[in-house]
Amino acid sequence: MKFGVIGAGQMGSGIAQVAAQSGFDVVLSDMSSESLGRGRAGMEASLSKLAEKGKLSASPAEVLGHVTFTSDLAEFADCDLVVEAIVENEGVKAQLFRELATIVGPQGIFASNTSSIPITALATASGRPDRFIGMHFMNPVPLMTLVEVIRGYQTSDETARFVTETAEKMGKTPLACNDYPGFVSNRILMPMINEAIQCVMEGVADKEAIDGIMRLGMNHPMGPLTLADFIGLDTCLAIMEVLHRGLGDDKYRPSPLLRKMVQAGLLGRKSGEGFYRY
Ligand code: NAI
Question: Which ipTM score applies to this complex?
């Protein structure tokens, strides 16, 4: 089984790592060589931590040996599955799938790790809607067990079965849902994060208190503002915009503070500052 991953950011490098840990031959690409280098460094750090804890069955070097790092999409021609994990932008993703359709043989199933963009729209752009599906991993991929498997309008049973089995081979728990805005995970999670940001804006409480109330009171492992920083505020805004556009209701309106922080370049952990400094 040859497993392709496009986008070597926090999600793509994690997906590639877990696929390699599961013994698949992996090709990982990104449009920037710096991102590819950062992705590789992140995988090395994660693999050595897992090895220290005795959670790897092969050495980090052996696992990395399964991964080809490339910027050449031609390497994906004979992939059985290509998972896309690039920037959360519908136009950019659709363009990538149109290009991939001309490169990857008809055997190849396409999956998107999108947090919120309609799977059916990307499936149409790919020209192979029956062999297209959402494969939504959680962050950090090596530690989180859920994969939300999202069927587009024309996804075939065979594609759904293949992707479900592949997720299981990666040690994950796949759970199925249909293609509506935000799917299940972000339809429920993101309005909570947005409301927490609105509480900061309105001065309901300070950020530490908001996070503490949700951690201690609701038993959440981390507060919503810490989680927003971890996900990336640009990604949070993109998801809220999809929910607002797709579902229409005012309750999905992105908080003006979220919008302002993204405009200021405060994207959370990945930019060094969001609600907290890193
Ligand atoms: P990121 O910003 O860390 O990485 C995105 C990578 O894609 C960058 O390395 C960038 O250079 C690359 N890229 C952008 N356009 C490209 C193109 N046209 N061709 C090739 N590479 C390209 O973003 P992250 O957080 O890894 O998110 C990626 C996807 O995963 C998004 O769709 C996001 O919504 C989704 N996701 C994110 C989660 C999170 O917690 N951050 C959780 C689950 C899904």
Answer: 0.98
* 256 confidence band (pLDDT: 50, 70, 90): very high
Tens digit of pLDDT for each residue in 108-133? Answer: 999 999 998 999 999 999 999 999 99
Dist. CA 215 → ligand 1 center (Å): 27
Question: Over the stretch 61-108, which tens digit does the pLDDT of each residue have?
Answer: 999 999 999 999 999 999 999 999 999 899 999 999 999 999 999 999
Is residue 148 among the annotated active site residues?
A: yes
Determine the Cα–Cα distance for residues 82 and 70; give it in Å rounded to an integer: 14
Burial class (CB in 10 A: 0-12, 13-18, 19+), 132: buried
Distance 87 CA to ligand 1 centre (A): 4
Structure token digits, residue 52? 């220290």
Task: Give the span between the Cα atoms of 277 and 190, in whole angstroms.
Answer: 21
Q: Which residues line ligand 1 (CB under 6 A)?
A: 6-12, 30-32, 35, 85-88, 92, 96, 113-115, 136, 139, 231-232, 235
216, 276 Cβ separation under 8 angstroms? no
- Gap between the Cα atoms of 258 and 32, Å rounded: 27
Q: Please indicate, yes or no, whether the overall pTM of this predicted structure exceeds 0.90.
A: yes
Please indicate whether residue 186 is annotated as part of the active site: yes
Instruction: Name the strands in the sheet holding 2-6, side by side, starting at the edge strand that comes first in the sequence.
Output: 67-70, 25-29, 2-6, 81-84, 109-112, 132-137, 146-151, 173-178
